[in-house]
Amino acid sequence: MVDGASGVRTRPLNPHFGVEVEGLKLSDVASGSGYEELRGLFEEHSALLFRAQDITDEQHLALARRFGVIEDRKADERKPGETVGVSHVTNVQEDGSLSGEMDLHTLHLKANFLWHIDSTFLPSPALTNILIARVVTTSGGATELASTRAAFAAMPETMRERLRKAVFRHHYSHSRAQISPELAKLPMFHKWPEQRWRAVVANPLNGAEAIYVASHVWSVEGMEEAEGRRFVREVLEFCTQPRFVYSHNWTPGDVLIWDQRAVLHRGTPWPWAEPRKLASLCVTMSEADGLAALRPALAA
């Protein structure tokens, strides 16, 4: 379909959410043209796919800044004057070699195979991720998205009411512990204290509600730990039913942009003997994006 007078065309990725966008160059948006239309599609559809985009790292950074402040998990490690750059989801190490399948770095990548929302363990979590394919493998390596907005609308009312009252407690080390206890002990997964977030977030522009859950959730307030984890598992299983999932097989130049307030994602395995590199930039959620409403009342 054609959206508006600009000639931008969209095609559904899934019957419930997401569109492939044609007729909009992200390099133009990075330089200041067309962001309002892009943001409107983002708010309405939750996930956007752009194919065959010719976009440099500098344009990637500029595009991310259109959405807000770029997330910087290494701010405490930077030298004076050093700025954040593009991150890479990759098995290619600095010397050009590939990390082994059981290396801690590879285990960290495998933790991304768990359904999650980025940065729920940070004091200000992510609004979006802008992910660009740079090097892809001959097979595997898909990125899957699941709409927690569509899932929330479809689930039984009794479950929705439980979620509206729930507060989830998130910690970075919890998702890593599901892959490797050794990995979970690394200092990088203990830089931030646990974060408490409401289990349901409403989009401040259109009011659409979505479930805010992730592999980082280790506890539910008011529940015994085992009971809480069963509840979280039940919620994740409902949200990631095939009817709510879009699986993307990458080609170089593909770009995915999704709303972290309404979409879970995960990677899928690929042949570890082959290089894979995705360029990633997360943008931090602001108060205008609904951050204040996501914060629960202080724990008693």
Task: Describe the model.
- With 300 residues, the chain is of the alpha+beta class.
- It contains 10 helices and 16 strands.
- The protein has helices spanning 26-30, 35-45, 57-67, 104-111, 148-154, 157-165, 172-177, 181-184, 225-239, 291-294; strands spanning 2-3, 8-12, 19-22, 47-50, 87-90, 126-135, 143-147, 167-170, 195-198, 200-202, 209-211, 217-220, 245-248, 255-259, 263-267, 277-284.
- The strands form 4 sheets. An 8-stranded mixed beta sheet has the order 1-2-3-4-14-6-16-5, with helices on one face.
- The model has no long low-confidence stretch (mean pLDDT 95).
Distance separating the two termini: 51 Å
Name the overall outline: globular
Largest sheet: number of strands, sense, barrel closure: 8 strands, mixed
Unreliable residue stretches: none
Proportion of helical residues: 25-40%
> Could you tell me the strand content as a percent range?
15-25%
Please, what is the average pLDDT?
A: 95
Q: Number of helix segments?
A: 10
Total strands: the figure is 16
Query: Topology as H/E string?
Result: EEEHHEHEHEEHHEHHEEEEHEEEEH
Rg (C-alpha, Å): 19 Å
Strand order of the largest sheet: 1-2-3-4-14-6-16-5
Structural class, from secondary structure content? alpha+beta
Short description:
With 300 residues, the protein is of the alpha+beta class.
Short descriptors:
alpha+beta, eight-stranded mixed β-sheet, 16 strands, 27% helix
SSE map:
Elements: E1 2-3, E2 8-12, E3 19-22, H1 26-30, H2 35-45, E4 47-50, H3 57-67, E5 87-90, H4 104-111, E6 126-135, E7 143-147, H5 148-154, H6 157-165, E8 167-170, H7 172-177, H8 181-184, E9 195-198, E10 200-202, E11 209-211, E12 217-220, H9 225-239, E13 245-248, E14 255-259, E15 263-267, E16 277-284, H10 291-294
Parallel strand pairs: 3-4
Antiparallel strand pairs: 1-2, 2-3, 4-14, 5-16, 6-14, 6-16, 7-13, 7-15, 8-9, 8-12, 10-11
